[in-house]
Please model this.
Amino acid sequence: MNRYNLFTVMIFFGVSAWAQNTTIKNLNSPDFNKSIQNTKGTLLDVRTPNEFANSHIAHAGQLNYYAFDFEQKLLLLPKDQPVYLYCNTGYRSKRAAEILVKNGYTQVYHLEKGIMDWNLYNYPVVVEPNAEPDTDNRMEPDEFYALLNSEKPVFIDFYAPWCAPCRKMMPMMDSLKTEYKSKITIIKINADASKKLVKELQLGSVPYLALYNQGKKVFNHSGIITRKELEKLLKSY
Model:
């Protein structure tokens, strides 16, 4: 092998090794919990201050993903120790993890499904004394099950105020609620304000949509959906 080919091979393996070392390590809740208990590093919650105050993992720092200087402050984290990131469902923390990896951080760990999944495992959280719980569109389990006994079909939209896909669909949901009000009961439920219900239903992400008919779930969907798809569903009932 000549020098040129040898040099090329060395570069290839060097770049491959670097790429492998800078891959985001996606962890489920049990593995994430084990890692932060047994390894020194920085645990960072990238949600808003209000979200953080209402429920966060012990010893976590907080940095608002939506702040204009988020990336600048994020890159002040030391590169010589692990960084553990989480948010509600994993969307914001994954974006933050990508920023770190892009800038040379090699020990980036990400709670893949966020603190919503963490709560399903009954892992402990901290609630600040000054927390102001979100009460908009809150629903308790007993109210929810009573609602399902309605004579009309019931369509449920589980959302969260911080959820971009949820906000994108809100005008559509409001429009459909008005259009179908005489035929179908359409209800918006704030997942952040309805933690007990969310935990009981084992919901790990939002938006989550469900249609009940005579008390039985006949449709469910996670993630964004088009108006055309929803209208087709609603018209069938």
